[in-house]
Amino acid sequence: MTPSTASTPSLDVRGLAYAYPDGHQALFGVDLTVGRGERVALLGPNGAGKTTLVLHLNGILTGGAGSVAVAGLPVAKKNLAEIRRRVGIVFQDPDDQLFMPTVREDVAFGPAAAGIRGAELEAVVRRALERVGMAEFADRPPHHLSFGQRRRVAVATVLAMEPEILVLDEPSSNLDPASRRELADILRSLDVTVLMVTHDLPYALELCPRSVILSEGVIAEDGPTAAILSDEELMARHRLELPYGFVPSSVA
Q1: Is 227 exposed, middle or buried, given 0-12, 13-18 or 19+ CB atoms closer than 10 A?
Q2: Angle at the Cα of 19 (from 17 to 23), degrees rounded to 5?
Q3: What pLDDT is attached to residue 28?
Q4: How far, rounded to the nearest angstrom, does the alpha carbon of residue 182 sit from its chain's CA centroid?
């Protein structure tokens, strides 16, 4: 394994192209570099290829042309265990990630599977729950929590693995305003690279200084989020719309 260095980007995608077995070409040569500690929003209409790109980051999808590297480590079969530790994906529905009797056991599941035991495991779980403000709920069954609390626990299950990249799929969906704000505060506090897949453009502006538009399987735009959201012609061309009356400068 090549050791990581501070200058190595968290994510380096080169010429990534992928066609599904039915012949549908989802990606046509994507180039994307994300530096350590960056928070980047991945925007685009439905069917643009966003999910296909994300599934290449931890090797769920393989076999396409091009390359993907995480902190300098190629996403390849021989590296998949380490890659899946480094790339933590938080799904849109937290119930897809929470399946143990208690919050503590859910957060401990990944580290325990990686061989961490005893006091060290307890410390890892406590630290991950503290980072999302859920330490006092460690002994609760996840299904007794609110939707927003379950999403925060889902983030903790990923943080417990100390990932290089945190990938969030529609993190603000189905959250009430207070939960939305609490999650935003948590995400701003984290010292990891964040790639946020979202249709919530104000949330992207609030949390991600940089945005990338993926459209028809290619990177159509890459730049400051405020500049992208202020470009009405660009937005319309890629079927992106701000909420009625929202002005990008109101958050930027």
Answers
A1: middle
A2: 150
A3: 94
A4: 17
In this prediction the pTM is: 0.90
CA distance 124 to 129: 9
Total domain count, the chain? 1
| CB distance 45 to 238 below 8 Å | yes
Q: Does 250 fall in a domain?
A: no
20, exposed or middle or buried, with CB in 10 Å at 0-12, 13-18, 19+?
A: exposed
- Asked whether residue 3 is domain-assigned, the answer is no
pLDDT tens string 188-214: 999 999 999 999 999 999 999 999 999
Q: What is the CATH number of the domain that holds 220?
A: 3.40.50.300
* Neighbouring C-beta atoms of residue 56, cutoff 10 Å: 24
118-131 and 147-159 helices, crossing angle to 10°: 130
Domain that holds residue 49: 11-241
Please tell me whether residue 21 adopts helix, strand or coil conformation.
coil
Q: Specify if 6 maps to a domain.
A: no
Give the count of beta carbons closer than 10 Å to the beta carbon of residue 103.
28
Give the separation between CA 110 and CA 108, rounded to whole angstroms. Answer: 6
Q: Report yes or no on 247 lying in a domain.
A: no
CB 54 within 8 A of CB 167: yes
Residue 183's identity, in one-letter code, is L
